[in-house]
Please model this.
Amino acid sequence: MFLFVFTLISVSFSAYSQEIPKEPAAISAGKQIFDSNCKACHRVHQKLVGPALAGVYDRAPSIDWIKSFVKNSSAVIASGDAYAVNLFNEYNKTTMTSFSSFKDQDIMNVLAYIQDETIKGPGEQPGQKQKVVDGPKEEGVPATYLNVLLVGMIVILILLVVILAFLVSSLKRFLDQKALTEEEKEVVHSPITAGTIASSRGFIFVVAFLVGALGFKAVINGLYSVGIQQGYAPKQPIAFSHKIHAGQYEIDCKYCHVGVMKGKSATIPSVNICMNCHNQIKSGTTTGEGEIAKIVRAYNENRPIEWVRIHNLPDLAYFNHAQHVNVAGVECQTCHGPVQEMDVVRQHSLLTMGWCIDCHRKTDVNTKGNAYYDKLVELHNAKSKGNMKVENIGGLECSKCHY
Model:
């Protein structure tokens, strides 16, 4: 009797532990994991590289089977499992990437997100709507100030010329009241011609002033543009389209740029990441079969694709992607622009020191759910009003970016 009760309780706890969570926090965490790791090959309501995942928790043999398959699909297939072998054959013998670092709770959260999306039903198809995040304005502040200054100086110069014309007219009327010789009257009332204007000291001064002002503005603009590569879009060894991958198929940036969540550099994708999809997808894209063939050739020859770096910071500047993306929650488009709309990626922002400082002065610190900031928020609220900005926690200290 005791054994029966123990077995019943064990089964009950096991069934409870396998129940897919429905809490919003679990669904949100699952969506983040899905977007970063699964979205490149799977959709909830349609086939992509792999099967549609709607209702997968009902189709698969069990939740434990799903956990095993996600962590090591090759081992499940090699074991001769009928369901896994059928999937493997149905999808052109493409092996799913193994996510051995996933915890059971991570997989349950992903299933929570899939279940939530399954209940909601199909929504917008990929490529119909893209999120665009507005970043700092791209207008060059120094150039604006110079333009305003130059216009102001020209207006002042015009006013001086008008005032001078009134003075000359008044002086002529005054001299006409005096007894002047014929020679003096001829000088006073001498006709104004193009030759007299061109040879006058006033005209020479005006021309020299305008030439000098425009030259000064050109020199200043040139100095401010040193080291700025905004709009830089080099030709790449493969015509990779972000508009297709990040836009049409909504592949998350973090799937390819794997270092963005955990390191200083976002990292350039390796050919192995490309082949996760292109083991199966070998044609039918607008980049053409020739471009995909270059990827396959590089993979077969075990050599890297020599991508040309687009965003370059000087060696004296320190920037950490993980600090901004993982901790601060900054969207990629904030700095890199609407990459999902670019066939050819270009440098969207200025990426100057002033541009970064302006962002630190305007951006609120993302303190929600992070106990690290609790004391700082308390101190800030005791001394200041309004939200805590990045500059309030040392975001403008020289040593933060220059080491």
Observations:
- Residues 1-17, 125-133 have pLDDT under 50 and may be disordered.
